[in-house]
Amino acid sequence: MDSSGIGSDDGTELSQSIDGSHWSRNDQCTMFNGKPYRDLTLDDLKDVVFKSVAEADTFYLYYSIAKGFNMRKRKLDWNSKKTMIIRRVLVCSREGERRNPKESNVCEEDDDSALEDGLFHKNVKGRKDKALRISVVNDSDSSCSGKKNAKTLTSKTRRLSRVHCGAQFTVNFDSERGGFAASSFTTEHNHPLTQRALTPFMKKNRGLKEHDMAQVDSLRKVSVGTSCAYEFLVHQAGGHEFVGFTERDLYNRVQRENSKLMIDGDAQCCITWMNMKATRDPNFYSVFSVDEKGRLANMFWRDGQSYTDYCAYGDVLVFDSTYKTNMYGKPLVVFVGSNNHRATVMFGCALLVDETEETYNWVLTAFLASMKQKKPVSVITDSDEAMRKALDNVMPEARQRLCAWHVGKNAVSHLRDANTRADFFHHIFAGLTIEEWELSWEYFVAMNRLEDNSWINGMYNKRHRWAEAFFRDEFYGGISSTQRCEGMHRILKVGIGSCMTMSEMMARMEKSVARLRNRGLYDDKTSSLIG
Questions:
Q1: What are phi and psi of 18, to 5 degrees?
Q2: Lower CB count within 10 Å: N or C terminus of the chain?
């Protein structure tokens, strides 16, 4: 382009680099031949020749951004032989008027069948409209003569944006000058223009670049949420007005990228992920079940390292579940234990459809199958009754212990007096014989007048599952609560939320477990006598 102020002869590259971070900070995007873009007229362009249509598009894009409106490509005319472009027309996005939505009259008695047959109006891109508006018209206005009522189906309309704005820019090919020259340049608008402070939110002023998306992908892979990733990019750019896109733009892009990865659905993506793990790890084990409708119900998996850890430290098993880890509300169950450094090790994970006895039977059976039927000596759980029954069914030989933390939490809610609670806590952890414990309990109940307390009586009936006195001859490896599970849940939930798909959740969990195992290797190194 001759006599231009854009700063490059390559219009295509310029059009690809336009975004909020460039035009607001670089003079080449606000000035044209020493004059502000927003003040240009047709006289200022009489000596300008655009070498290509792309250069003309780039020029008007810069102009629209500086002026405060969105542009639209209106027309592209070719010669009679379709070998050369002879004219390009660019307009304000609010030019013209909206076309009336197409209507279709459907008789009332045929309405249901028409909807069942898929009678939907489609938009320009061929996608079905999200909503239909149904209105009743008179018999005289309907083409269905002799029938009671006819319903008119119209596509749901959006906010009106076309207001017959006359602003436009036209270039024609000039064979003598060897390029495109401006033939018409209307600068007046019949609507308010965007204020300069709001220009970063204009459609043409927003664009998520590939290198920004690459940074977001890297951050998300290390459990950094999309919102925090956006704030990082804002800090890197020097402010929200320079980042070039909004947080909603980033969320939409991430959603589109995730949809590309899950062509066959989230459940199939999880199964594919587990098959991929199995090809890399010969000792990887996974199993899943489906419901009566063929949908994914329960899923259990563990890797080869989990099997190795269980063979070495699987005498004590801690078993618990948690929520808010995925968008489907599936409870996440973790099987953990303690190693020789008294650090937590992972034995396996499962996603369940619910927390019934039948479901727990399935997951415990799957766990034992993955561990070649090696059963733990002791199991620590919370007070879930379905979990207890499932353990009795699948692991009847294992000694069960209720989590001391959960027992204490229930005591706080049922016993108001602080001294009474302190006496109860003493009976949880006191290293007494069974006879001594029984005498102390009788004294505790009598002194605090708890003979008619239903919760105290219920806890006494299952005292063999929570009082330390009844576990003196049992091995628990110094573990008395499911806090290891709770700690594991906190580790796994870093970057995991209730709006996350299962495939995303499993990938992030893998990184959390890898971090946990790396700490175990560090413990091995610091405790060894080598180097």
A1: -80, 125
A2: C
